Amino acid sequence: MAEHGLKIAVVGPQRTGKTLLCRALAEQPILLGEMSYQPTAAVRIQEISRVLGIDRVKVQFWDVSGSVQYQSYWPVLAKEVDGLLMVIDPNRPEQERDLETFYRNFAEPNNLYTRQCMVMAIQVQKEGGGLGGWQGLQGGLKKLSQSYVAINPANPAAGVQEAYSHLDVLFQGALQSKKEALESSYMNQEDQ
What are its GO cellular component terms? Predict the structure, then answer.
């Protein structure tokens, strides 16, 4: 089984559930109650392993702060990103403009294809909460893959399973692009 590594930047406005998602995926403890929201200072990195077909993939989630206070760090954090997961609060469609800024700063400098980018609306919910009715993106980013996931911080397993059903598509797209880039670099070396 071949092993590969992927760097996935997880970006979006503040308080959209980026850290909750990353911690849940990495099976890390999730804070509840008064201490449940702790703003990310610049970046948090979580790692997971996935098996995609014949490939074992070590995924690093770079959970990037949504605060403009850390915007000067974005070029460094965006360096060599293999994929981009943009997170939005489905109850705040005005955040779509913010996602366009993240796209320009993370996807465009890395020449990411649409298969390497995804928008995920995360509904943080309590037991028994419904999924709501997010209508998806309406602007320039509507060409990207979009998903909607509900996560209950007290019991995130169902939300994690749903998230993986979408994220595996992102991982496969990022892995395919990475393999193609490696193959191209090998071909160029042979030509010299």
Answer: motile cilium
Q: Total domain count for the chain?
A: 1
Q: 129 is in which domain, residue-wise?
A: 2-191
DSSP letter at 53 equals T
Task: Please write the tens of the pLDDT for every residue from 149-173.
Answer: 988 888 888 899 999 999 999 999 9
Average pLDDT over residues 124-140: 69
* DSSP classification of residue 126: -
Q: What is the dihedral of CA 116, 2, 161, 118, to 10 degrees?
A: 0
Partners of 146 in the β-ladder:
119
Task: Choose the weakest-confidence range: 22-36, 75-89, 138-152, 168-182.
Answer: 22-36
Cβ–Cβ contacts within 10 Å for residue 42, how many? 15
Query: What span, in angstroms and rounded, lies between the C-alpha atoms of 33 and 27?
Result: 19
Annotated binding site for GTP: 12-19, 62-69
Under a CB-based contact definition with an 8 Å cutoff, are residues 61 and 48 in contact? yes
The annotated binding site is made up of 12-19, 62-69
Task: Check which CATH number belongs to the domain holding 129 and give it.
Answer: 3.40.50.300
Nearest 5°: the CA angle 42, 166, 174 is 65
